[in-house]
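Narrative of activities, Objective 1.

The group set out to show that a structural description can be obtained from nothing but a protein's sequence at a throughput compatible with the screening campaign. Below is one input-output pair from the validation batch, recorded exactly as produced.
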Amino acid sequence: MAKLLEVRDLVIRFGLRTGEVTATSGVSFSLDRGERLGLVGESGAGKSVTGFSIINLISKPGYIASGEVNFNGENLARVSPERMRQIRGNRISMIFQDPMMTLNPVLTIGTQMTEVLHRHRPELSREQARDIALDKLRKVHIPSPEKRLEQYPHEFSGGMRQRIIIAIALLTDPELIIADEPTTALDVTIQAEIMDLLMELCEKDGMGLILITHDLAVVSQVTQNIAVMYAGRIVEKGPTSRVIAQPQHPYTRGLIAALPQSSRHGERLNQIPGMMPTLKDMPPGCAFNPRCPHVMEICHRQIPALRPGSNGNMAACHLYPEENAHE
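Output recorded for this entry:
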């Protein structure tokens, strides 16, 4: 069966006055129908720009320099703007980090939802669009949906606004949802509710989900597979449970070691020393070499390829033999 999404060797660049910088380099991953994938990494890792590139939302001066984004066999990196508008918000929906930046503060929720429907399905009557909006609000467990349609964004709590955003994303019954840090501004209890909701919707409707986050704890509860990004490259990928239990790349190990644990109450949290390099100041060789506890001479001159680690995860690290390199 064909993949829902295949990203192949994606390179994204930004043109600056001083020259071009590369935001992602050789990023490749795939997604089956109904699969939940986590894109994980610190700020600046390239995960959000990768997600935006799938639906061509990279702001200028950024652009896709090379690579493919195949959605149901169609390369979205090369389609016309008109064709992209037919797909974006219709067959692929995105959930953004801050609902208040997404929702229009001067329009009711009902108006915003029906506008989305009429944009993609102009044949719908006003009553039909309203019925679909009500159905989606019920689906995301919004109480009294008839009343809520007439309310404005400021009348909802943060968690409820995020549910509204999810309901809007579901209006056109998309095949894929991209969620960019969807719970960052919410407290832990509401975070868990939103993640449970996304997982429930994917399982019921067979939608694919790409969850973009810095939070490995969230990913471990929601996704089936994970791709860890660092400085614009995927440095490890594999089944979520195996990556969490047996991380192969030193960066992944550092992220997991930094997670708070109840068994270490009162102890200082672990942290990865140093900072992620900026796009203009990438070190030669492996970008993680200034922070890596296992750095070797080869790490300063050669970028490692993704290759099988000791447990089958794919890891871009010179700790693993060259003869096992992934082609």
